[in-house]
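JOB MANIFEST
job_type = single_chain_structure
chain_count = 1
residues = 143
[input]
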Amino acid sequence: MMDVKKNLPGPGTIIGANVKIAGTLQDENEIIMHGKIEGEIISEKNLIITETAYVKGPISAETIQVAGQVHGSITATGKLEIMPTGRIFGSITTKDLTIRSGAVFIGKSVMPGGENALIEESDIKETVSPVSNAKSNAEYEVE
């Protein structure tokens, strides 16, 4: 019988551009995704979705970089970065979000930040008024 150990040191998982997976992909180390997956991706560390990658399903990791296409929810316990070629269609939850120019994000974002970061919607006051010297009716100021 083989002795199975957890948390083995070494490289993580690399999925090639011509690989198609249906199911769950899980690694305690880094995952680099070049191919296609219909299913869940879980990493304890980094997850890199490259330009050639397509993911349909939920993904979660500490740090996530998206340069390919994701259709599903994303949970990054640390940082999420959407690169210029990245396309996300779904909800995201992260503490640190970077969206590069050219990236596409269609969905809902949640950024948990603790009790001190919570602001009630009723505490936000915004006044919109037309600009007095505006050349058209489409110019407004937000105070």
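[summary]
Residues 13-115 form one domain.
The CA atoms of residues 39 and 134 lie 52 Å apart.
exit_status = 0
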